[in-house]
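Per your request, structure below.
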């Protein structure tokens, strides 16, 4: 352990699901973690959990699409720790509906959270990484970035765009020793997917598990993915940038 000793990391959407698990594992590996999260209650609880186990964390209850609030959190973190080594763009939302059912308002909200805030957060943090000639930016895309089940067009669009933007940042920031990589998880059993109802459906049990559309024959857990983020943030990852690591139990390797 101690893979992230002396590292300072931001994790967005750290109140539950994948973001919470990444924050806990980063802290366990020795990183000080800034928890950016819209839900003040859950983020305070995660902060308390990390501190109780001897880790360092600071909760920032905010909406990542509020750029003044995001900038203030970055400034506070810099005055606390003096640097930011790792930025994990994890917060994301899915609003369901086909193109015949959804509307521009929901499209814009999904784009604001899943894509625009990735741009703004990177824009706020990258200059400080450039100054130190060190940084790791990790985006959380999805297998929905290159395939679709329908009903989440805005989500699919943002997750695909995040992959393209990850590559673009990797090209631009490589000269400053800033590595930018994406993780594309498959179906994770988190509140996000529970809301959709898929993982508890008959279809999931039959097709994805029973008939092996997911070769590993189970849904994923945040713990199955958080280690990939630890790897990308650690010194074991040093000659890889602009890549997408698919963590989906083999789902996208089958047809
Ligand atoms: N669950 C899956 O199957 C799955 C699959 C692939 C990718 N992902 C991606 O993984 C990431 C985490 O997903 P999850 O399943 O843990 O979701 P989740 O809904 O369980 O957790 C997301 C967290 O982000 C927070 N959040 C949402 N909007 C915010 C905002 N505007 N500002 C600050 N915080 C905000 C939520 O309050 C929540 O705590 C997302 O980017 C998601 O798209 C999830």
């Amino acid at each position: 352990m101690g893979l992230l000793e002396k590292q300072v990391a931001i994790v967005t959407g750290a109140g539950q699901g994948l973001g919470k698990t990444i924050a806990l594992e980063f802290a366990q590996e020795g990183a000080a973690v800034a928890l950016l999260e819209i839900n003040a209650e859950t983020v305070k609880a995660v902060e308390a959990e990390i501190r109780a186990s001897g880790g360092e964390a600071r909760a920032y209850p905010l909406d990542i699409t509020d750029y003044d609030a995001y900038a203030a959190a970055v400034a506070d973190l810099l005055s606390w720790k003096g640097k930011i080594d790792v930025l994990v763009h994890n917060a994301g939302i899915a609003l369901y509906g086909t193109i015949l059912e959804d509307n521009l308002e929901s499209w814009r909200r999904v784009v604001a959270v899943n894509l625009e805030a990735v741009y703004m957060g990177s824009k706020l943090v990258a200059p400080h990484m450039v100054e130190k000639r060190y940084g790791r930016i990790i985006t959380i895309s999805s297998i929905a970035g290159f395939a679709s089940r329908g009903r989440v067009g805005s989500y699919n669009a943002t997750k695909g765009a995040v992959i393209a933007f990850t590559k673009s940042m990797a090209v631009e920031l490589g000269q400053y020793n800033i590595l930018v990589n994406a993780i594309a998880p498959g179906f994770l059993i988190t509140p996000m997917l529970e809301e959709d109802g898929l993982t508890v459906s008959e279809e999931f049990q039959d097709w994805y598990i029973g008939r092996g559309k997911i070769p590993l024959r189970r849904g994923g857990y945040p713990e199955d993915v958080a280690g990939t983020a630890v790897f990308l943030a650690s010194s074991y990852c040093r000659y890889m940038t602009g890549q997408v690591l698919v963590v989906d139990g083999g789902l996208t390797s089958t047809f």
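Residues 12-13, 15-19, 36-39, 42, 63-65, 90-93, 113, 140, 142, 185, 187-188, 190-193 surround nicotinamide-adenine-dinucleotide (CB under 6 Å).

Regards,
D.
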